[in-house]
Design brief:
Oligomer: heterotetramer
Strand content of chain A: 15-25%
Number of helices of chain B: 12
Number of helices of chain A: 12
Strand order of the largest sheet of chain A: 3-2-4-5-7-6-12
Shape of chain A: globular
Largest sheet of chain A: 7 strands, mixed
Strand content of chain B: 5-15%
Radius of gyration of chain B: 22 Å
Bound molecules: thiamine diphosphate, magnesium ion
Radius of gyration of chain A: 20 Å
Largest sheet of chain B: 6 strands, parallel
Shape of chain B: globular
Strand order of the largest sheet of chain B: 2-8-9-5-4-3
Structural class of chain A: alpha/beta
Number of strands of chain B: 9
């Protein structure tokens, strides 16, 4: 098995699905000749030509609206929006159409498209290049919201997303793009949309995170084990919506305590829904209030300060200790 | 050549063949078989009558609001008749006539206006998209469909309808630009009915015509008398031919008029004069077309009476049928269908929740 | 005092603020000559002229983007988006600019604009005319999200919103527009943005709702009093964001039980944040899991079914009884 | 007149006064005082050198990414020089030269590129808006500002800058249309530098020019040689005069070229040839302007050397000053400033939370 970073793993998924299925079409700004500003589409226009890897004019609503039409026609468009901070230009196309065509046509048409876009902080970028607003899409009925945390799972989830009959918003944690490598098997792997996974087992505390927050969360879990002998169970959400709360509730029934981690702003963020689901399904097992370790309710600052904004292992560890300290 | 005019293809024509008095410009008369001419006449008339019936159903509270097409029969039918089965029609919300022409069951349309999602389903044997309410947004779907046709090397086309107001939306701009850049078989049919609810065409944009907006995208644009079905038929026919030959998109501005209210929720007296409406009534697309057919000896007043009777009966049947459909449909739990191909765990729970509640209510109703 | 419905009360606020302050400008689709599709702007263009009440071309991003420029220039634009279902066309202007100009300019510029728009179901409308997606704006740092529940408070809140130095999204419950009348004093009244109010006192159960959901919620409270002798404390949120959780927590510390009501879709909706805040601030007082009575995670159906989608008094009462039944 | 050409004001000109060899068309030479001619030269040169210095600071990791303006000096300066104090400049993200001309402190710009929000603050004595990153979106703010000027009966103008790629965005369309409908004093200055990152102008739109897009909105549009500061100065000057007289907006397409990378994150070799770049280098706006000034006897090579020295020193001072500023600013807790005029309860709590954490970390650092 080859060791790959997330950029390479996503690229592999694209190569393999495009080879398998001529309905799969890439489009977006600079995805062709330039091979994507993060090089995620490397080698694709060369191999499949401009007819399947399309550099579009600079217009996000156009890219998404066109993708919707392509998907209705029977294709499997994968559009890239260069940064998630620019998906608001196409918000109405997603909310008013991608998410509704199946229902509006009463099942006659579907929109099997994937919108790929890098999200999140930590790469010393300009304004609008570090946002984490997955909650917008998670709150939108008719959309699926997926966020991988590492190379191998990114590859499997993307393949599943491409084959999903419904529109999938696929947020790629740009801070993870080249952060580390994993063994990624050549032969195809998929992972079901809508399923979280337990990445570390433990009996004392449940930690829920996803995307770029998985690494600090796992670091914190490790630290808590070493310094406090605490065994954390860590859940990688993977699919934010539709949210499968059962594995989370199950874990909390065991641990009685939980910490939720995301870099998105705190209020009305994903953490609130996860906490509410735990309350709905495991209330009587709770031994302490559930803690949120999140971005603040402000626009993420420019990079001189972004590390003070983003949750890190230390912040997560402290929150965990507070939750554990409740007797 | 320091200060020079750039030579641009910016010729924009206006086409009119059958004027408001029914006068014909023979040199331009399109060659259309008699039976098809009559078929179009019947469809126009039927569209008008369907509107009138919808209005009175709405006034009786039997259906909700809807967007009348009266006055725009030529502008939408003259375009839609060029579509083949493998073509796609991408309407906004004021194309009930074009939709019926394409095979939409009027009873199903009624079901939709009565608030049943079931009525939104396009007929199985047609490619058309359902109604799109967000103004201008649907034009991009036509672009995507057309891209698919080109990719699959079909000679079909995507025809999208939109109003004068829609040309102000960013999505219209992006759709025109994409269609131009990728040389796609999209027919942009603008139903310029002079009003966007209460906003007149003159306040919608400073440009003299809407057709000239095509120049911004380097594609052909033409303005036609939208109440002249022969002109609409001719201009759209040329555009469709070019599109099928791979020559790309065209913008056709059909100058027409909305005779009735914007929707039944609207009162046009608030913003436009009776005189203006009456001026336009003189340009009625059906009247002048009937004159044309009579002059050709294809139609008599007696024929018209007969057709009116048939249409009346057809509409009556549709209304009755739709009422039957309403009884059969409307199971509240069906609201959970079609959000995704499969129900998610949360939706399972919510459906269960509603179903429990409904049965409890039923029981209470019985025992109370 | 004159009895007014919400349309008249909002109209009164507009008349009075425009008279007082020539920086206040109205713009939107059909707000002039037509006086608004709901007649909310009645009499205004006649009184103040087209220069202060502007019918714009049909373009929501244009309307909002222009309002932002006007606000930066020192005016107080009030733009109307005809239905909240069409605010997604201008999502990027709100998220990327209205919410950020103060921060981006480091306090040099501000965007004191109000975006008025009717939201919610219950009026037998077409698709996109019945949505309730306030959570999108509540999750957007830099925006304030306000929803009045009746004529008198709508008038006071709108005046406060107009005078607020920051952008306010003002959702008007269209189902309430003409539903009932209240005494509305001629003399000016304001109500602070960011403050909920207790509209009914009680010791047994806390109910939190807002907008069009206030009436079924109060109905349910009344019914629970009559048939079960239960005393509900009912809180009208008024400002969804910034959320002031103290009065809610305080109430729950007293009652130990709560029900949250909104017509927005359930998952990742406003209820989740309210529940989470209660958990963060009153966890040890909770005697039962908090219940959510909300819209479902689907697009609200067309009107033949919308009443089965929208929460009503009966549904709220049942939820309350469940919460109360936990011993 | 059944099929007739509609007569439209669709004349689009191209203006060039000082060609790439420094040849002047005297008949069109604008009347600009000598000292101002020299002031513009100094500004252009300084803009170029500032770019070069930024690039090496970035390569040393002392600042983050930025968008170079090299090659576009004439296109942006020739426009910005027409702005008065009471006018508003609405830039996108590639106008560092125009911003400096307008009074932006280079040290403050450096602070911004180094990732400090403090650097985003426009200078107190200028009306200009800060950088706008979302392509095309800022053009609407210029429209709103211009509306305010008209409402307050000022004769000031709003000048907005954007690229060739920006013309594809819906917001550009809506801004042009609103400016036309309301006859607003907006100057739309398009910096057509031939590329939108890796997408060439030819793939951005099918239209022959960008200037002709003005026709869609019924407003004047003109294309100028954007590397010819005399042409840009003249065309924009005319547009500004019209705007001040209440005659509404103009679109000016400046044909220029981005000599460097899109941003420091970009590698242009991936998508364009050295030859193309070299062809454009021959059209350098500064070189030809220097020839012009020399021919006029206003400038010698010796002068240039002197100016280069001064600029070098100025930039060095700015860099040093910015490093001092970095030390003084950057208190993490300041991230909570300016979200709203006042801190909300939740933000109070969150600020307190961060402040506690930071002091804990400081203690741990001290005791460890
Ligand atoms: C994006 C959006 N904004 C506003 C509306 C509300 N609305 C419905 S129709 C209409 C006017 C449309 O005018 P036009 O495009 O000329 O079409 P017409 O109704 O005249 O056929 C408006 C403003 C909408 N449906 N979608
Ligand atoms: C709405 C939006 N989409 C995408 C981007 C990413 N992006 C930044 S600059 C750019 C190209 C802009 O091209 P152009 O308008 O020609 O300006 P230039 O960079 O050439 O000066 C892109 C795609 C963005 N900043 N905003
Ligand atoms: Mg219209
Ligand atoms: Mg460019």
């Amino acid at each position: 098995m080859a060791k790959m970073n997330m950029v390479q793993a996503i690229n592999l998924a694209l190569h393999q699905e495009m080879e398998k299925d001529d309905r799969v079409i890439l489009l977006g700004e600079d995805v062709g000749r330039d091979e994507g500003v993060f090089r995620v589409t490397e080698g694709l226009v060369g191999k499949f030509g401009e007819n399947r890897v399309m550099d579009t004019p600079l217009a996000e609503s156009g890219i998404v609206g066109m993708s919707i039409g392509m998907a209705i026609y029977g294709l499997r468009p994968i559009c890239e929006i260069q940064f998630s901070g620019f998906t608001y230009e196409n918000f109405h196309q997603l909310e008013s159409h991608a998410a509704r065509i199946r229902r509006r046509s009463q099942g006659k048409y579907q929109v099997p498209m994937v919108l790929r876009t890098p999200y999140g902080g930590g790469v010393r970028a300009l304004e609008h290049h570090s946002e984490s607003r997955e909650a917008y899409w998670a709150h939108t009925p008719g959309l699926k919201m997926v966020i991988p945390s590492g190379p191998r799972i990114a590859r499997s989830l993307l393949i599943s997303a491409i084959r999903d009959p419904d529109p999938v918003i696929f947020y790629e944690p740009k801070a993870v793009y080249r952060a580390f490598r994993e063994e990624v098997p050549e032969e195809e792997e998929t992972f079901p949309i809508g399923k979280p996974r337990v990445v570390r087992e433990g009996k004392d505390l449940t930690m829920v995170a996803y995307g770029a927050m998985m690494r600090p969360t796992l670091e914190a879990a490790e630290q808590l084990k070493e310094s406090d002998g605490v065994e954390c169970e860590v859940i990688d959400l993977l699919t934010i919506s539709p949210l499968d709360d059962e594995p989370i509730a199950e874990s909390v029934r065991k641990t009685g305590r939980a910490v939720i981690v995301h870099e998105a702003p705190r209020s009305f963020g994903p953490g609130a829904e996860i906490i509410t689901r735990i309350m709905e399904k495991a209330f009587f097992y709770l031994e302490a209030p559930i803690a949120r370790v999140t971005g603040f309710d402000i626009v993420i600052p420019l990079f001189a300060r972004e590390n003070d904004y983003l949750p890190d292992a230390q912040r997560i560890t402290k929150a965990a200790r507070n939750v554990l300290s409740v007797k | 050549m320091p200060r020079t005019e750039i030579d641009l293809p910016c010729r924009v024509e206006r086409l009119s063949i059958l004027d408001e008095h029914g006068e014909l410009d023979q040199s331009l008369e399109p060659d259309i078989p008699d039976d098809f001419l009559l078929k179009m006449h019947r469809a126009m008339l039927s569209g008008r009558r369907f509107d009138e019936r919808l209005l009175n159903l709405q006034r009786q509270g039997r259906i909700g609001t809807f967007a009348p097409i009266s006055g725009q029969e030529a502008a939408q039918l003259g375009a839609a008749v060029h579509l083949r089965r493998d073509d796609w029609m991408v309407p906004c919300f004021r194309e009930s006539l074009a939709e019926t022409w394409r095979g939409k069951d009027p009873a199903s349309a009624l079901l939709y206006f009565a608030g049943y999602d079931e009525g939104g389903r396009p007929e199985d044997d047609r490619n058309d998209l359902p109604i799109a309410v967000p103004v201008g947004s649907q034009t991009l779907h036509a672009v995507g469909l057309a891209w698919g046709m080109k990719y699959r090397e079909k000679d079909s086309v995507a025809m999208t309808f939109f109003g004068d107001g829609a040309t102000s939306e960013g999505d219209f701009h992006e759709a025109m630009n994409f269609a131009g850049v990728f040389t796609l078989p999209v027919i942009f049919v603008c139903q310029n009915n002079q009003w966007a609810i209460s906003v007149p065409r003159s306040k919608q944009t400073r440009s003299k015509t809407l057709a000239q907006k095509a120049i911004a995208y380097g594609i052909p644009g033409i303005q036609v008398d939208g109440n002249d079905i022969l002109a609409v038929y001719t201009a759209v026919g040329e555009a469709v031919d070019r599109a099928r030959k791979g020559e790309g998109p065209t913008l056709i501005e059909c100058e027409t008029y909305r005779i009735m209210m914007h929707t039944t929720a609207d009162d046009p007296k608030r913003y436009r004069s009776e005189d203006e409406v009456n001026e336009w009534k003189k340009k009625d697309p059906i009247v002048r077309y009937q004159t044309y057919l009579k002059n050709k000896g294809l139609l008599t007043d007696k024929d018209i009476e007969g057709i009116e009777e048939e249409i009346k009966a057809e509409i009556q049947t549709a209304v009755e049928h739709s009422e039957k459909m309403m009884k059969d449909s409307g199971d509240p739990l069906d609201m959970f269908l079609h959000t995704f191909q499969e129900l998610t765990p949360a939706l399972e729970e919510q459906k269960e929740e509603l179903s429990r509640e409904l049965s409890e209510r039923r029981q209470e109703a019985d025992h109370g």
